[in-house]
Amino acid sequence: METVHEIRSLFTSSAFALIPLIAVGAAFVWALWKPRPLDTIPTIGPSGPLSSYISAVQFMFRGREMLQEGYQRFYSGGIFKVPILDRWMVVLVGKKLSDELRSAPEDAFSLDQALVDMLHLDFVFGKKVYLNPIHTTLMKTRMTKAIGALTPDMYDECIQAFEQHMPLTDGKEWKAVPCLATARQVSTIVNNRIVVGYPLCRDPEYINLNLRFIIDMFQLRMMFCLIPRFMEPIVGRLATNIPSQIRLGMRLMKPVLDERVKILEDSDGDWSALPNDMLSWLMASVPKDETLDTMTRRVLGVNVAAIHTISHTFTHSLFYLAANQELIPVIRKEVEKAVAEDGWTKTAMGKLYILDSFLKEVLRFNGAQAWSLNRIALKDFTFSDGTFIPEGTSVAACATPVHMDPSVYPDPEAFDAYRFYKMMERDGEANQHLVVKTSLEYLPFGHGSHACPGRFFAANQLKLMIGHLLLNYDIELETPGVVPEQVWFEAAVLPHQTANVLYRKRQT
Ligand code: HEM
């Protein structure tokens, strides 16, 4: 009797102890399987609460195929979703829906919020910088207006950067350099001539800091995907390189800023005594209490926007030029003629229509992202096909699938450097087909009011670098005629990471 009682009391006390466990388990299962607002949007790949994580890992390596699958399934216009590690990405297919996203009011969809969410700009740049993005405003306004005035300095920097990273000898033998690493160095030096000026733009420590910073931001993103939001500040501070990189940036920037302050004092506040570059424009525009820390973060921010996009496009361009040797004499001739007429100026770069068409084709194949118009919904929104998008959802429009659609670009898999040049000649209206002209069918720079404001600058810098390279160098690939394969990560399109380009002094 005693034993029965003991067993019963043991049972009741265990059952009692199990109740909270069962409740937690049930809540967990409910949290996993409860209906969610995005459930009604078709998914590419598995969409279960656990299997979608496997699918997110697949998307890292098969992003291109999964987006293509969605594009084909909803070819006549529709909406699907794909998982990325920390969220669903809702993807639009078709001009009508993409145009609704492009033209939606600012309080409905936000690019800024998408960047903050994806790149954790709140942690990386701090509230003072991202809530008051003077550097972005300057990129959108002052930088584009100053292209003409800045081009001679950039060309000067081109000469020295190529000489440093691809030194020429008189011999006929080829030398090999890793294409991406070299392109990154050259592009970052040239770009920084008009960001922080000479001599900091040639400081290897500063250049490598900027090149490294975006990789650190990427690592931070991957780490933040795995932890709850409240832990981000502490993990970011203790377990990522961002704080030490900012400190290094401050150490490198301080002497330059001190020198500029002294120039201003010595010239009785004459701003024209300062170099004409982003750093001087920033000094003139930031609040009086701006610190070295925030100024450094702004400069790093300008570099994040500019240098990888330009250096990746430059790398892709070198691969396609080296693989298509017949283009080289044609582009050389075009550059020689323009430069003979106008020198290495913005006017001359504006006359390079074949090179422009080549660059546009390079970006059609290799736009930085397979989707474009990346936004976050700031409030609930319903597209015209009835799809409901709740506040906080990430949304984008297909880009690469459009660029590879035969109904948009005939024979899309063929790289045709003259594709857009032929359109310019056909229509007699070159401007409509330039690389900087965006549309819902040409999305490497986005489209609409947030279309990349740096694209005019980027096109000018790329033409300067390619023009200088072709007039002075022969280039070739280790496997002639074969463009080294792109690398895909999620929706990002990257050039081959290690392939060499061969070079020697121009022989003809
Ligand atoms: C080949 C080079 C480049 C490519 C492919 C590129 C691509 C893009 C894309 C796709 C967007 C988003 C547009 C949208 O969602 O509607 C963007 C935005 C932006 N880009 Fe670029 N970009 C390049 C070069 C540059 C350069 C050189 C700068 C600055 C000097 C720059 C500054 C910006 C800024 C500030 C934004 C945000 C615009 C806004 O908030 O409205 N980009 N870029």
Automatic annotation (TrEMBL):
<keyword id="KW-0503">Monooxygenase</keyword>
<feature type="transmembrane region" description="Helical">
    <location>
        <begin position="12"/>
        <end position="33"/>
    </location>
</feature>
<dbReference type="Pfam" id="PF00067">
    <property type="entry name" value="p450"/>
</dbReference>
<dbReference type="GO" id="GO:0016705">
    <property type="term" value="F:oxidoreductase activity, acting on paired donors, with incorporation or reduction of molecular oxygen"/>
</dbReference>
<dbReference type="GO" id="GO:0004497">
    <property type="term" value="F:monooxygenase activity"/>
</dbReference>
<dbReference type="InterPro" id="IPR017972">
    <property type="entry name" value="Cyt_P450_CS"/>
</dbReference>
<keyword id="KW-1133">Transmembrane helix</keyword>
<comment type="similarity">
    <text>Belongs to the cytochrome P450 family.</text>
</comment>
<dbReference type="GO" id="GO:0005506">
    <property type="term" value="F:iron ion binding"/>
</dbReference>
<keyword id="KW-0560">Oxidoreductase</keyword>
<protein>
    <submittedName>
        <fullName>Cytochrome P450</fullName>
    </submittedName>
</protein>
<feature type="binding site" description="axial binding residue">
    <location>
        <position position="452"/>
    </location>
    <ligand>
        <name>heme</name>
    </ligand>
</feature>
<keyword id="KW-0479">Metal-binding</keyword>
<dbReference type="GO" id="GO:0020037">
    <property type="term" value="F:heme binding"/>
</dbReference>
<dbReference type="InterPro" id="IPR036396">
    <property type="entry name" value="Cyt_P450_sf"/>
</dbReference>
<dbReference type="InterPro" id="IPR001128">
    <property type="entry name" value="Cyt_P450"/>
</dbReference>
<keyword id="KW-0472">Membrane</keyword>
<keyword id="KW-0812">Transmembrane</keyword>
<dbReference type="InterPro" id="IPR002403">
    <property type="entry name" value="Cyt_P450_E_grp-IV"/>
</dbReference>
<keyword id="KW-0349">Heme</keyword>
<keyword id="KW-0408">Iron</keyword>
